[in-house]
C-alpha cells in the first residue's frame, strides 16, 4: 500500500495527521475511530469473505466504508497506528461469560506503549487504558480496572465485572485466523446466531440488532422495531453510513 491510504483512513475517521505519536494523539484517534467505524458482523450474514490481511481490512473500512468485528477493527487500526509511528503489539484475549472463559484467540486487542487500545469490543472504553495501572480507571464508558491473572495474563474489568483475560505476549495478525474462522462459521458462535451493527455517538450509542433500532442518549434508551426492508436499509445508511443492496438475514450454519 502506498502512503495515500493513511490520509484516506484519517479522513474516514475525521482525524488529522498527528504531529507526533503520543498519548494525546492516541486518545483522539481511539475516540474518533469508535464514533465513525461501526462494530458489525454483517459480512457473516451477507456471505462475504473475511480476510485477515492489512490491505483487505483497510480497504473494507476506508473504501467500502464498512466496519467489522474485533479482528478486522483491531487489525486495521493497528495498521494505521503503525504507519503513524506508534509501537503496536497485537494481543490475544479470552472473553468471560460469567465465570467461564471463551476459546483462545477469541478477541484481538492492542498494546500501544503502556496503553491498552481496543476499538473492537462493542460497548467498551472510549479511551485507552493504562496497562500498568492496577487501580480504577474512570472512562465515559464506565469504571475499568486491570488486575493480575494466572500465568502472567491480565484481567480487564468493567464496573466490577470481568470482561476478558488478556495475554501479554505479542501476536501476529495471522495468529487470529483460527479464532476468526470459528467465530464466523461455528453454530456455537454468537456472531453466526445474531446480527449487530453498533457505534458510539456523541451522546451515547446507536445499535441496529436485526430489525431493532436501539438509541441511547444521555442515559435514556429508545428502542423501536423497523418495518420493511427499505426501513432497515435506510437505518444502515442513516446511522452508520453503510450502503447495502439487501438486508442481511441470520442463517446459522448447519450443525
Verbal overview:
It is a single chain. The chain has 255 residues and is an alpha+beta fold. Helices cover 28% and strands 27% of the residues. The protein has seven helices and 14 strands. The chain has helices spanning 4-12, 23-36, 42-46, 54-62, 70-83, 177-185, 229-240; strands at residues 39-40, 88-97, 100-101, 107-112, 115-117, 129-130, 137-139, 142-148, 154-158, 161-166, 197-200, 204-209, 212-217, 220-225. Strands 2, 3, 4, 5, 6, 7, 8, 9 and 10 form a nine-stranded antiparallel beta sheet that branches. Helix 4 (54-62) crosses helix 5. The radius of gyration is 18 Å and the shape is globular.
What would a concise description of this structure say?
The protein is an alpha+beta fold and 255 residues long. The chain contains 7 helices and 14 strands.
Report how far apart the termini are: 40 Å
SSE order, one letter for each helix or strand: HHEHHHEEEEEEEEEHEEEEH
Could you describe the largest sheet, including whether it forms a barrel?
9 strands, antiparallel
Beta-strand content estimate: 25-35%
Structural class: alpha+beta
Count of individual beta strands = 14
The residue ranges in which pLDDT falls below 50 over 5 or more consecutive positions are none
Question: How many DSSP helices?
Answer: 7
Q: Please tell me what the overall shape is.
A: globular
> Helical residue percent?
25-40%
CA gyration radius, whole angstroms: 18 Å
Mean pLDDT: 95
Amino acid at each position: 500500500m502506498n502512503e495515500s491510504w493513511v490520509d484516506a483512513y484519517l479522513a474516514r475517521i475525521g482525524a488529522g495527521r498527528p504531529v507526533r505519536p503520543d498519548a494525546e494523539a492516541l486518545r483522539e484517534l481511539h475516540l474518533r475511530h469508535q464514533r465513525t467505524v461501526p462494530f458489525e458482523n454483517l459480512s457473516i450474514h451477507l456471505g462475504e469473505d473475511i480476510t485477515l490481511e492489512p490491505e483487505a481490512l483497510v480497504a473494507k473500512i476506508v473504501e467500502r466504508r464498512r466496519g467489522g468485528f474485533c479482528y478486522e477493527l483491531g487489525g486495521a487500526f493497528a495498521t494505521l497506528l503503525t504507519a503513524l509511528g506508534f509501537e503496536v503489539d497485537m494481543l490475544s484475549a479470552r472473553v468471560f461469560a460469567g465465570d467461564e472463559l471463551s476459546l483462545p484467540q477469541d478477541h484481538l486487542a492492542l498494546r500501544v506503549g503502556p496503553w491498552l487500545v481496543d476499538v473492537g469490543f462493542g460497548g467498551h472504553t472510549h479511551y485507552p487504558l493504562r496497562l500498568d495501572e492496577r487501580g480504577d480507571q474512570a472512562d465515559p464508558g464506565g469504571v475499568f480496572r486491570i488486575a493480575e491473572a494466572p500465568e502472567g495474563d491480565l484481567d480487564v474489568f468493567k464496573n466490577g465485572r470481568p470482561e476478558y483475560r488478556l495475554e501479554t505476549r505479542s501476536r501476529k495478525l495471522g495468529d487470529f485466523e483460527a479464532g476468526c474462522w470459528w467465530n464466523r462459521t461455528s453454530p456455537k458462535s454468537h456472531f453466526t446466531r445474531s446480527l449487530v451493527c453498533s457505534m458510539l455517538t456523541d451522546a451515547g450509542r446507536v445499535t441496529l440488532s436485526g430489525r431493532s433500532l436501539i438509541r441511547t442518549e444521555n442515559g435514556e434508551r429508545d428502542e423501536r422495531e423497523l418495518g420493511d426492508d427499505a426501513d432497515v436499509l435506510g437505518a444502515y445508511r442513516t446511522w452508520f453510513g453503510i450502503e447495502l443492496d439487501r438486508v442481511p438475514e441470520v442463517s446459522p450454519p448447519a450443525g
